[in-house]
């Protein structure tokens, strides 16, 4: 029996394998989330429409599903059929969580399959659209009988070539039922659930953010982006355009939905849009630059956002949505506080409307105590209220999901407004790169789940609507001192269609008095209950594993030091309206883009972003340099000056030190500090002494007054035709030696003239002892013997001429 049970379980697992849906894959480009098909499944179902998103008594009596079925596999699939099926009503928070994760049963009602005609060959796709009654018989409809929240499954079966029939694709979602339309058989409808539950105070945080794409620049320079995805997102039909349009249409100023809503905006995104409207360029990976195509769309979007935000609650995210905890752990506490203060100031200026001061919503709603101290009331950020996840507060005897609590180990008056963790879980299922959903809360593994958002962005808010209705039907907690807070993650993947569906559902629940609008500022002003105690912060281990890597934080520190060196060398140029702060403050803020929450859980993207930023700042630093002359310097004397040209590509005057280094051939006098005008150049006269003739190389570098490197070394070629010191010295020594030798020769000659004559080489003549004629002396045995003379020749008598 055990063997039979095991074989049956294995068979069920094999059949249920395709239910795992689309697993989140690694992001191939900055800010572009990617979805992968189910491993081993040839088909992928992409849903684009589900109507209605919230079932109501005055809504349609049927549910309609539309989308596309794609064959991504290597074989054709035949006998394809599709159906909708559902599970029982989800009555507990645990059942809702299980359904959101994609592991709940959805086989309580399983109507008949509907055939899809034709064979789907590899690479092809077919449209899918079918309708089913919400009530009615279980064989032909969903057979809903009461309000609640249900697990809905779109199930696709088929027969791959050479295989057996199996479930090849599936998409799951929550189906919220506020009330039911009339039953055709009974002729009556179930009323709204609003009469059965008390009203729950409700606050919605509406994030408008995106992955940073702007490279550092200086005033007067054309804006440069890493890609042109924002052009599509800002345009009609794009994600960011849809978020603003949905808010303007479904939650106009003065409506109950807008009263409950607070916009949470990334200041860096708004600044990027403002820069794009004046024209920009896109830098390709190979360094080439092309004109951007979204200037008009960015300007229109920014105007629409400013108009929509006017008169509303606006909350500024940290600059570039920076990971404050990672910055603090890396020792950059001042940078973390500056990210908060700069974000508030810049967003207020860009939108022309005040932002909620003293309130901070960190990424994932999580903080540790050192970060709290860095951005709290004792710091420059001056924050007294934090919007935190209920999972980021230590647990007490009772589970807390809503309310306003005092924070322990903090300054008096610092409080936290709690985000409902169930609503947050439903929202992060559909977040972009870096969201908490990318790592399982227990194991840290990347789970596979066939959520609606996993295959289609338009359905990305469906689970949020279901979880919100579940909470609203439960009613307010008796011990809650604050509102029920729905706060999707900062990097929310919802588009205009998904946002429109969520806001419409919220509006309907407000109209049905299931929810009551509560502005975030009201909850902040009300504060915690008088009798409530303080709670300590809790920072989950899984959150630390997803932080921006320490290596990236170290590079942020290094690059920041380089920017500060540039700032220290800069001066205000009289008559020029650009100050060092206007030049280098934006560059310093740009380094925070590498710490954006968009890269949490994606260390490779964080590293890539930091590399792009570092390279760009290196280009700005290298714009202050010695220009290479068109040809070599020719020096005709041993003390000839060199004229160097120092250029400054920054729009601010720079104090620099010029250094010349040569292995041999040139000695340089100390060069005084120079001042180079903004976007200008100067000539520096360098006093140099040539130590040898010939051609040799000299390296010229430019540094800040404190020794920081600016532009790269410039190689100068020097050709000398003058005699250097060493050459002259050698020539002089040679001349002295020549004189000494001449004098010596002359002295020897004079000595010979004034002394005894030198011995003759002729043989001496000795007198003949016999009184005869003298004869040669005896031969010297050391000399060679010569033959003696012959007989004397008779004397020659001259002939006398007549």
TrEMBL record:
Pfam families: DUF6049. Keywords: Membrane, Signal, Transmembrane, Transmembrane helix. Residues 430-458, 751-802 are annotated as: Disordered. InterPro entries: DUF6049. Residues 443-458 have a biased composition (Low complexity). The keyword Membrane applies. Residues 784-802 have a biased composition (Pro residues). The chain crosses the membrane at residues 722-743. The keyword Acetylation does not apply. Residues 1-25 form the signal peptide. This is Glycoprotein. It comes from Pseudonocardia asaccharolytica DSM 44247 = NBRC 16224.
